Redoxin domain-containing protein (Sphingobacterium olei), 216 residues
Amino acid sequence: MKNVKIITYLALGSALAFGACTNNANPKEPTTVNGHDGHDHSHEGHEHSHADHNHAVEPAIDSQKEVSTAAVKTADPIPNIPPFTFYKVKSGVSFTNADLPKGKKTIFVLFDPGCHHCRDEAAALAKNYNKLKDINLYFVSMNDPALMATFLESFAKELVDKPNVQVLYDRNQDFIQKFHVPSQFPANYVYDVNGKLQSYWEGDKNINEIITLYTK
């Protein structure tokens, strides 16, 4: 399989290279805003070992030191959906927080199109689409849009062209700068109808648990 480039995020003099789903048998449990137990999101010295694909890390760029460090300093994701600008993969049209349909829960799935855990989750969600019709579901990635363009068609056909589902390209690294820096993919973020964070988790999870957390 071809190497997939993942953006390097540099802050406070430390390079944070992330982007590979892991085979960790104990992914982080779903966490609620009001009941967070606290866990370590440190990336220093963290190596991603993945047998299925190898991610080439781009060299650190000095200008990246000036990006916001809020996501690195904060263990939890931001409690409210922040202003953002992503881009619809197929059309290239910008998609911002102002475009989120009102009155619905919003789910962001930060993913890597080459990650088999991400593919498995997308496939499982697709088979349960009837339970997801009333939520906003967004697959977000910083990867090459060409790799993202066929993600749903290849692994989650039932989600293709659904009005509440989008695959979004994070060209400017808005997610890791404004939302959160996860340690593994897929990373799920569940926001309520008022845009407040309800729960989040990293890594793979049983589809029944996912549906419950998405819809409760």
About this structure: DSSP finds six helices and ten strands in the chain. Residues 8-215 form a domain with the Glutaredoxin fold (CATH 3.40.30.10).
